[in-house]
């Protein structure tokens, strides 16, 4: 297969993403303001009470309806018990990407020495890639291009969407379990340092903005509890110790599980897209549910058709939202350039090279099935830009929002070049092994 044909096949989907993203940035301009700051914040904070405009409600519909329908519908349609056994390596592959990315993020922190409250953001941006929106757009689009080694376009698109949906669900779980807590620990450590040294470390505004994370709709303590703690700070540890000793074993287990749930932020872990993935898995794997809903002769096939119809609106809507979120980076100033450069090198050079070694090495050991499309998906998971939800996480803690917007601006701007080149190379790799 000629390299030029591979380059064209790889560049067309990326150009589609670029055009839709540019349109989203245009709609977010102050003169247009269809996807302005208020609407984006309404979606990112996932709070129906913050904004009531038509467009903010549209963004919430994308978050709560379109994306879950896209993921759940495609997983239920293509995932079976047999295919789940074949796809066992995908969660492991994404875990490897997070581990290698974390190591690269640690090196970026070591070399560029960003402020303490940004170190978790750097690690999170290097570790957590956009394993949802980008893959859902690019991979099925690659199937439709002529000259690819993936066979019939309709069959390829069906399985490509299933792989991308599975990747999105697993990536969301890892992001909220790992990246969220990395940022949280970094912010809390910086806050403690600010408390010890006053305003000598960083900005004093950091401490004030992080004391109450943005995005929580309810206070962590009631007014009565807060007053009690304020007047009994010295006796509080002893009281808690005595209370724990009086609890039964079952109550202690419940208490510790509650603490773990609050620490890991399980509420964010079970986002609508994750819940939809779980439903899709259940419907696809359980035989009688699959016969009931999936297929042209299924009694409840109208549910599948309606779900897929809703999901088709997610791809263009998500692309517009990405473009709207990137506009903020153009207006930001004062971000450390070496930090941004380090993240770009880590995500677009070091991580894809590591991914090639991991995937190809395991394929030679016959631990991964020899399927060109599946191999392409595994490889591209190492070459995507940082997860857009990193911006949501910084908004929740009120720390690093400006820096995150600049990181997203540059990484997504350069993604048009990087993804095209890496997709071309990955297509050549998988086609040469066919």
UniProtKB/TrEMBL annotation:
Any Pfam family hit: Mem_trans
Keywords noted in UniProt: Auxin signaling pathway, Endoplasmic reticulum, Membrane, Transmembrane, Transmembrane helix, Transport
Compartments where found: Endoplasmic reticulum membrane
Top-rank taxon: Eukaryota
Q: Mind listing the GO biological process terms from this record?
A: auxin-activated signaling pathway; endoplasmic reticulum to cytosol auxin transport
The record gives the membrane topology as: Multi-pass membrane protein
Which residue windows are transmembrane per the record?
6-32, 53-76, 88-108, 120-142, 162-183, 269-288, 308-327, 339-359, 379-397, 409-430
Q: Which InterPro entries match?
A: Mem_transp_PIN-like, PILS1/3/4/5/7
- What are the record's GO terms for cellular component? endoplasmic reticulum membrane
Q: What's its job? A: Involved in cellular auxin homeostasis by regulating auxin metabolism. Regulates intracellular auxin accumulation at the endoplasmic reticulum and thus auxin availability for nuclear auxin signaling.
Q: Which family does it belong to?
A: Belongs to the auxin efflux carrier (TC 2.A.69.2) family.
Q: What is this protein called?
A: Auxin efflux carrier
